Amino acid sequence: MKRYLRQLPAVHELQKDLRFEQLKTVNNVTTARLTMFLKREVESLRAELLIGQQELEGVALDFSTRLFKSTEAHLKQWQKNRLARVINGTGTVLHTNLGRSRLSKAAVAHVAEAAASYSNLEYRLSEGQRGSRHDIMEELLIEATGAEAAMVVNNNAAAVFLILSALAKEREVIVSRGQLVEIGGSFRVSSIMEESGAHLVEVGTTNKTHLADYEKAIREETAIIMKVHTSNFKVIGFTETVATPQLVELTNQNQPLIFYEDLGSGALYDYKKHGIGDEPLVQQVIESGVDLVSFSGDKLLGGPQAGLIAGKKKWIDYLKKHQLARVLRVDKMTLAALEETLKSYLAGPDNINELPTVRDIIRKAEDISLQAQAFISELQSSSTKYISELQESTSQIGGGTMPGVEIPTYIAAVRHSDLSAEQLSHRLRQATPAIVTRIQEQQVCVDFRTIDSSEMVDLLAGFVDCE
C-alpha cells in the first residue's frame, strides 16, 4: 500500500506537466480551478488505493495519465449547463419536472431582447418619470380577462399568499374541506394560509359542501370566502359543491366580505370545445362577479412561471401597495414572455397555435400519427438494432391540470436488440440533448404530441447514438 501511495504524483508536479497547460487552454479554465479539480482527483485515487490496492499487483501504473484523464472528464461534465435542454417524449404537455410550458417564438424573442437591453421596466417614457412594473401587464390582463384591474407575482402560490396575508391576516377565511388541496411538493392550501396569518375555517365535508355550510360559518371575524379549484384531482360519485355565482351572491349579501377564487391552472382558451376537460374560463369567472381570482402563468395559459391576479380595482390597488408585492414581484424577462403570450390570445383564434402549450393540447391524433410513422421509418433505415412499431395511446395534460383527462395519441414503441427498455431509456437521458421517454410493456415509448418537428433530427440522432 505504501509503495503505491508513494507513486501518487504531487499536485505541484502535475502543474508542471505540459498536459496541465493543454487542459487549461482547451477547457478555458483558470489555474486555480484546474488545480482544484486535480486535487479532488488525487484524493479520490488515494482513497481507491487505500480500499482496493491489491487489484494493482502486476499492473503497469501511470497515475499521472489517469489523473489527467479523469480531471478532463470531470471538467467537461462541470462545463455542461445545469439547466439543460430536454426533448420531452412522454406526451405530458405540462410536465412539471421538465419545465411545464414552452414559450412561443415571439415570447422567446421578446425575452432575449429584454435580457440584452435596458428597458422601461419602471420608467414612463411619455413623462420621463419613474413608473411601476405593474403598469406593463395590467392593460393586457384587463383585456384578456375582462377584470377591472390586474397584477402579476412570481407564481400562483405567491398570489394566494399575498391575497390572504394582505386581506385576511388575523381574520378568518372560509374554505370547503373538499378544496383543501396539496398543490405539489407538499405545499398545501392550509399551510399557505397558516403562514399568511389568516385563520382557516373549514366547512362541509370532503365530498359535499352546501351553501348553508358557508352561511353558518360567517362571523364578524370573517374576511374572505375562498373557493379553490381542484385542478389536480377529481372527486366523483356522491358529491356536491357550491357554484361560483351562489358564493358571489352570498358575499354580496354580507359586505364587506371578499369572495376570492383560486383557479390554479387558469385557462383563457376554451379547451372544452375540443372535448378536452371541463376547465372553467377565467373570463367567465370574472363575469360572475368575483372580487379576486388568481391563476398560473405556466400551465394552461402557456406562458412563463407567474401568478396572475385579476378582479375588482379597489382590491388590486390595495394588493399593489402591500409590502409583499415587492417581495413577490417578477423580473423583466417574465414580463416580456407574459406580454407576448397574452398578445397571442388577444390577436384572435387564428393566432392561438403560436402557443406551444395550446397547440400541443388540441393537436389532432392523425397529425401525431404521421410524425411518429416518419420517425419509425427513419430509425429503421438508420439502424438494424431497433424494432419499432406505431401504437395507439393516450397523452396527459400534466402540471396538476385536468386530472383524469386523457387525449388520444400515437406513440413509437421501440425495442433494442441488445438493451433492455430501462437501459435504453437511461442512455437516451444521457444524450445531448437529453431524451425523456416512458416505458410500457418493456418498450421505450415516444409520444410525439410533445415533440416539435424541429426536434426530429436530434431525436433520431439520440437513438442512433445509443447503438
Automatic annotation (TrEMBL):
Family, per entry: Belongs to the SelA family.
Keyword Ribosomal protein: no
InterPro entries linked: PyrdxlP-dep_Trfase, PyrdxlP-dep_Trfase_major, SelA-like, SelA_trans
Cofactor(s) needed by this chain: pyridoxal 5'-phosphate
HAMAP family in the record: SelA
Protein name (record): L-seryl-tRNA(Sec) selenium transferase
Keywords of the record: Cytoplasm, Protein biosynthesis, Pyridoxal phosphate, Selenium, Transferase
Reactions it catalyzes: L-seryl-tRNA(Sec) + selenophosphate + H(+) = L-selenocysteinyl-tRNA(Sec) + phosphate
Gene name as annotated: selA
Residues with PTM N6-(pyridoxal phosphate)lysine: K299
GO molecular function: L-seryl-tRNA(Sec) selenium transferase activity
Domain of life: Bacteria
UniProt feature coiled coil, ranges: none
Entry EC number(s): 2.9.1.1
Pathway where this protein functions: Aminoacyl-tRNA biosynthesis; selenocysteinyl-tRNA(Sec) biosynthesis; selenocysteinyl-tRNA(Sec) from L-seryl-tRNA(Sec) (bacterial route): step 1/1
Annotated Pfam families: SelA
Principal localisation: cytoplasm
PANTHER family registered for this protein in UniProt: L-SERYL-TRNA(SEC) SELENIUM TRANSFERASE
GO BP annotations, alphabetical order: conversion of seryl-tRNAsec to selenocys-tRNAsec; selenocysteine incorporation
Species per Swiss-Prot/TrEMBL record: Planococcus versutus
